[in-house]
Amino acid sequence: MKNNNVIKAEKLTKKFGDFTAVNAIIFEVKKGEIFGFLGANGAGKTTAMKMLIGISIPTSGKAKVAGYDVFTDPENIKKNIGYMSQKFSLYDDLTVKENITFFGGIYGLSRKEIKAKRCQLVEELGLEEIVNELVGSLPLGWKQKLAFSVALLHEPKIIFLDEPTGGVDPITRRQFWEMIYKTANNGTTVFVTTHYMDEAEYCDRVSIMVDGRIEALDTPKKLKEQFNVNSMNDVFLKLARG
Amino acid sequence: MSISVKNITKTFKNLTAVNNISFEVKEGELFGLIGPDGAGKTTIFRILTTLLFADKGEAVVSDYDVVKDYKDIRNHVGYMPGKFSLYQDLTVEENLAFFATIFGTTIEKNYDLIKDIYIQIEPFKTRRAGKLSGGMKQKLALCCALIHKPKVLFLDEPTTGVDPVSRKEFWEMLKRLQQKGITILVSTPYMDEAALCDRIALIQDGKILKIDTPQEIVNSSPKKIYDIKADNMYKLIQSLNEYEHNYSVYPFGEFVHYTDKREDFNPQELIQYLKNKNLKNSSIKQTQITIEDAFMELAK
Fold first, then answer.
1. pLDDT at A1 over 50
2. Do residues A13 and A20 lie in contact, with contact meaning Cβ atoms separated by under 8 Å?
3. Which of B211, B212, B206, B204 shows the shortest CA–CA distance to B57?
4. Are A74 and A230 in contact (CB under 8 A)?
5. Number of other CB atoms surrounding residue B88 within 10 Å
6. How far B72 CA sits from the closest chain A CA (Å)?
């Protein structure tokens, strides 16, 4: 049987001194799935994500991401995933073109590949007029759409999105989600955190972390049934503060 | 009027951050500036709290002019900026005492006002502010903004990046402060919070799109909105975007919010169209318009 999981975490744990930030979390994410990773501030989401993207060594447990072990092969994980966050995405003082070239180079694409990707991206996002503008001068919504595309330059198996739409206007937020759907439809797995509960509804499956543990994990529909409420917002409110 | 803004404009180099904005906030009102990043919300706050001069226009806060009477305004308003700006290396208690002293008062004198909020962080009063969690920093910042018993409270995106549970608690605190007679001007990018304000201004690209009560903004939206659902969300959005009669197509939670260009729109016709597009289990029903729908319609 073909193994379809691109992320598999088994009792993954991270401790800082006496404090257990992530407590034996178990979950799997399938190829092409949009997986929502939710939780209150301080629930351990960021710590868990850092372990999965290969920049923080777990204290115990096991995890494989894109087929590579988080303990022994974090460098290969980094090559096979994309990552963007609200806090850091692109260099403000480089132009659109320079950012694409720079990140293409970082991800090890050839000049020819970078050029092809750049042309494709410019056309898809309609960037013709701003390709030589500094990224810092673009509206936030544009930046985030561009950052998302840049994180996909090397055609990773999984893209990690850490609150990608925070502060973005409602129309652009939805255009962003259309990009997410398209990406998942092409077979790339999307792992996303958000504080917008309507966005939780867009995910195929959602996990909710509370105090370092995954307290719920299912499709939005089943979670709402399980908690007998009408929206993911209510599921979250019921879970996150017991 | 507690706050009165008339034709305020502010330009930075070639960017017009605030473009000829006017609005009024009544005494004791909870008024929301609702809009995304870059709408101009922070610039308005900085002008009203006397930290920035407008290029044009005038503004009055609590009967004081923001230019002529800036010193009086500073004594009578509380301001919680979007960026955490307390002293990271002072403790919780020290920060609060510092702000009380600056304003010539004591913690004891106005303790009643902050009590509800302060007791939640009191167990950590000897911890340095820099070591607090996001939610606790926010509560401390609110206490510091309240310690001189301001008439008007300015809160710039107090809930950005905060999880839904803490956001709900924060708004409950605001409601209690309002009941104590404080006028509150609050900004947020979260459209669902708009419904919790008495009145709101929807703002984008430095301009006000509309000012009214949340209920009126929803009621006056002209379009009928439909919830559409089908098995494959991505394909559903694509198919609706290709539908020649569509006016707007926006994913909205588990549904797509759809509006049609035609007056005599027949939902069953659209269902048939989706069937022909091989979408399974599609359904359509008219739904309640939200502030977010109204915002998108106005911003379109």
1. no
2. yes
3. B206
4. no
5. 13
6. 33
Is the confidence metric ipTM above 0.90 for this complex?
Answer: no
The pTM for the full model equals 0.87
Paired strand residues for B148: none
SS3 A169: coil
Asked if residue A195 has pLDDT above 90, the reply is no
Nearest alpha carbon to residue B155 among B180, B128, B188, B107: B188
Residue B275 sits at the chain A interface (C-beta within 8 Å): no
- CATH 3.40.50.300 in chain B is located at 3-219
CATH 2.40.10.340 fits B3-219, yes or no: no
User: What DSSP letter does each residue of B96-138 carry, written as one string?
Assistant: HHHHHHHTT--TTTTHHHHHHHHHHHGGGTTSBGGGS-HHHHH
* Pairwise CA distance, residues B188 & B183, whole Å: 16
The three-point CA angle A15-A18-A19 to 5° equals: 55
More reliable by pLDDT, B146 or B169: B146
- The two three-digit tokens of residue A10, written as one number: 């088994």
Token couple for B239: 């198919």
Tell me which DSSP letter residue B230 carries. Answer: -
Q: A194 with B161: CB under 8 angstroms? A: no
DSSP for residue B39: S
> What is the DSSP code string of B139-177?
HHHHHHHHTT--SEEEESSTTTT--HHHHHHHHHHHHHH
| Contact (CB<8Å) A140/B296 | no
Residue of A nearest to B254 (CA): A201
**What fold characterizes domain B225-298?**
Alpha-Beta Plaits (3.30.70)
| Contact between chains at B250 and A169 (C-beta distance less than 8 A) | no
User: A61-112 pLDDT, tens per residue?
Assistant: 999 999 999 999 999 999 999 999 877 679 999 999 999 999 999 999 999 9
Q: Each residue of A133-159: b (16+ CB within 10 Å) or e?
A: eebeebebbbbbbbbbbbbbbbebbbb
CATH 3.30.70 in chain B, residue ranges: 225-298
CA distance A160 to B300: 30
CA dist., res. B132 & res. B142, Å (int): 14
User: What 3-state DSSP class applies to A58?
Assistant: coil
Nearest residue, CB atoms, B295 vs list A166, A167, A170: A170
Distance CA B295, CA B190 (A): 11
Determine the 3-state secondary structure of B270 from DSSP. helix
Residue of chain A whose alpha carbon sits nearest to that of B133: A42
